[in-house]
Predict the structure of DnaD domain protein.
Amino acid sequence: MSNLMMNYLSAGQTTMSNIFLTRYRQLGLDDQEFAMWIQIYVQDQNGYVMIDFRKIADDLQMDIKNVYQIVNQLVQKNMVTIYSDKGENGQLTDRFSLNPAYEKLQQWMEQVEENQENSKIEGQIKRLFGLLEQEFGRPLSGIEFQRVHQWLDEDHYSPALIELALKEAVLNQVYNFNYIDRILLAWERKNIRTKEQVANEQKNRQRKKLQSQVDQTMNTTAPLPKVTLHNWLDEEDNDK
């Protein structure tokens, strides 16, 4: 094996998340600052206690004053911190840490996730208003528009849950916001918040109705009545 290959292998390898490589600009770094941060990262991976400014200057073929300047920029941008640590002998030793960079990356990723979730919810709200106007066959009035925002902002019903309540009202052929509100209140009393819970509630209700009709049929000679949809306007009276 040639000396060149031996030098290549003995230099070691550095592993870094692709997020840093592709999103460093979103963290506020330019190309030069990121190149400097990589040098510090390599030293951190190799167990350096303090940044070797001279080595970085040699590796990057850069004046050491520029190295100090760029490292100071990284400190200001919370990508690296330099601090003093008192050892067992009581002497202070300068050290560095890249934890601020990892924390900054985590905050950025959380913000991206939050923005994506907000964008998703905004899309669901837009869809909800479109469905309401489609089913009612007209634009919503100002009061109806406020009622929907009350469900969303004050009652904290999800757009998906309101959409399910709308479908329930349409199945019962009741095109009325008060009726939809009754459905949502009934579900809230039963702690129903998801599509799966709504489906289970509907199955349980239908099963009870069928059983009740079967019981009535056994006591009479009348034919088995048709299964009717649930009347949500009677929900409050039944709960009293």
Remarks:
- The mean pLDDT is 85.
- The chain is about 65% helix and 5% strand.
